[in-house]
Amino acid sequence: WPAMYKDFRHYCQTFTPKTGELWAWAGAGGVRIVGLFTQEPAPSHGSKPGKATIENVNHCLKALAKLIESEKVKSVALPRLATGVGGLEWKEVKPLVEKHLGHLLIPVYVYAIYQPGVLANEG
Predict the structure, then answer these.
(1) Which end of the chain is less packed: N or C, by CB atoms within 10 Å?
(2) Cβ atoms within 10 Å of 62's Cβ, excluding its own
(3) Which domains can be identified in the chain, with CATH numbers?
(4) CA distances from 21 to 12, 30, 35, 58, 64 (A)
């Protein structure tokens, strides 16, 4: 996904995204990828971003639900948001996913466990 990486870097350098926001990218063939800014920004250029917060996850998921509804997205797949490098516990994040995306009338796939070599099954 070199084109996505290039576009993302350009976006970040141009707009300085804020936590709780999202960034949507459209690729060839209708592929959509949405980045959720759940982690606090890096304190200085070249340093790593801070940890995620429940408040940021909450804002991101609200924005994602609005995007899904306005763009008439047919399905969405998510990892365990903000639980890896972000540092949050899944038991804290999962209820927010259910709250903000559970009412949508589309399939919402949450990949809670990574299994190397196993392809995603999205129906």
Answers:
(1) C
(2) 16
(3) 2-111 (3.40.220.10)
(4) 12, 22, 9, 10, 9
How far, in Å, CA of 25 to CA of 35, rounded?
A: 8
Q: Whole-number mean pLDDT of the chain?
A: 90
- Backbone torsions φ then ψ of 93, nearest 5 degrees: -85, -40
Q: Measure CA of the first residue to CA of the last residue in the chain; give whole Å.
A: 24
What distance in Å separates the CA atoms of residue 51 and residue 37, rounded to the nearest whole number? 11
Q: Tens of pLDDT along 1-45?
A: 788 999 998 998 898 889 999 999 998 888 889 999 999 988 887
Strands 76-79 and 108-111, sheet pairing: parallel
The DSSP call for residue 52 is B
88: nearest Cα among 50, 61, 62: 50
Q: Which residues lie across from 111 on neighbouring strands?
A: 79
